[in-house]
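seq:
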Amino acid sequence: MSNDERLRALAAAAGIAVDWIDAEGRPRKVAPEVLRRVLAELELPADSGGQIADSLEQLRRTSSELPPLLTLERGQSFDLSGHFEPGSAFELTLEDGWRHGGRLDEQARLPPIEQPGYHRLAIGAQSLTLAVAPPRCTGLDALSGHPSPRLWGLAVQLYSLHRQGDGGIGDTQALENLVHRAAREGAAGIAISPLHAMFSADTQRFSPYSPSSRLFYNVLHSAPGSILGEREVRTALEAGGLADEWQRLERLELIDWPAAAEAKLRLLRLLHAEFRQGGNPLEQDFASFRCNGGEALENHCRFEALHAYHVRHHGLYDWRRWDPALRYPGSAAVAGFAREYEDEITFHAFAQWLIVRGLERTQQAARSAGMPIGLIADLAVGADGGGSQAWSRQAELLPSLTVGAPPDILNRSGQSWGVSAFSPWGLRRHGFHAFIEMLRANLAHAGGIRIDHVMGLRRLWLIPPGAEQRDGAYLHYPQEDLMRLLALESWRHGAAILGEDLGTVPEGFRPLLAERGILGMRVLLFEQDDDGRFARPQQWPGDALATSTTHDLPTLAGWWRERDIDWRERLQLIDVEASQAARRTRQRERLALREALADSGGPALDEPLDSDGLIDACVRFLGATPAPLVLLPMEDALGLDEQANLPGTIDSHPNWRRRLPLESDELLDDAAPARRLCLLKQARRTPGGEVK
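struct:
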């Protein structure tokens, strides 16, 4: 066997797809030099035959070890023959404390367990956790109480909301106001942009999909007045000389993230200073929050303080460049730093407390108002390798490899998303702790989550440091384990799971999502066949949500008016020839969409149709699909031209900065959104006429 053959064998054993199929259906093979670079980042050196042999032996030993957690299906026997002898005595302690003794059968199988949960199994001197999963995630039928739900909701970029007193960034109070208003219209839920924790010491970074941690929250979205009282906020603004700047930031059409972040953090520090004086009736609640947050919260707050210290004194924004003694959360040096900077660390805990309590209020308001789902959180595909989550969970992440996508029809050079991924072996060795705690954090104050790039449950395109986007490889993940854990946490929280399955989807993956009760996602602008014909409503699947667009795509009005092409021309992202081709394609697509709308009871082809009429017709069209949930983006409800994010740009397009034109409790009162919600509700009616 040649070295290249041994290399491919090692890559396959490590879960790397040596051969793969691209977006155009063509077979591809990962180059040997790319395999070596990816394997090196996985701590599996492969530069020589000896290294390859050693790495293969390391994988063999790892795979033969009994992990601290095993996942299994409810009601199915479980094969333990690889680890225990037939007839071995065991003791099973269920999560509720009930104990049961027995023996493995003649094939060393554990008898079926009917109760989902995290149970403890002891066999001889060994003890491990059994994560027993229900067959499916919690469905919209269970949440709505209807066997064939036809729900609808809104999707909103939370930062884009505004209300008087928000300081220039959408916050939880603005979201709560919108929840009350949408609930009166009959909305089942509101899907929001990611609220993951960013870097308080680096206010230039604000993309919600490139967070520092997916375990905690972006404190800039907190509404301290809803927790501490508006009078306390006004007093702090006046005392800090922030009142004029606060009002200036609120008047801006685009968010000035650095200025707004500086003002918000100054306000939070003033409020914390006052809170520390004592006598506040919420002191015990804060103390309880911090205690319950445990090690994870403490580590995040320590990271925030350490990160700010290194930025301020050394200009270092990445923990991997810190003094080695500070690179590990459990080190004596970190503990010493924490003692010296206790006040700073407490401040960051205080800021997290405010936003958590604000989100709790909002979700409680949604449920109290009758929403069967309430908030639908957005879970980003990864976190920054130089951020809090990567620092605190180093054993379970791959901070040096970057998640992205291989070249496809829309991105000929591929994509790099600038975030890190979990380590498949790290997860297994540590009982999937980092994955479970992430799910719990994001389900804690929501009735559902949308998993960005849900294909990451099976595989991720990972790019070595300094490599081009195309020079990566697919790394496979323990899909069965991850889906079982997802179903178990969905069941425990009574929450729906939505999966963003757009782009290059592995063959057979969507049926697996449906089998697990994970709703896929279908976008109107993508629902075309190879001939450019748009699928009619009755052809849409019943196991995926339906929506008009996403944050990375043009709004319906923008698509109709070719605003996305205008932007790409203006920024010289496409040349004249490509622009002309794009406009010709768009002309054909507009005609094809009009035909689909006309066939489905919309305006006839010979009727004049402007963008407002198009949106109305599209809303009716989406409502008529068999999708159990239709999400209408707020930009389309309002008929706006501009999209939230233009992929391939950073500063040249105002990504993640646009604010909506009205205050959050007035957004649905204007004639256009009121009309569209009425159309959507009518289209969602069951044959019996009842609005669900």
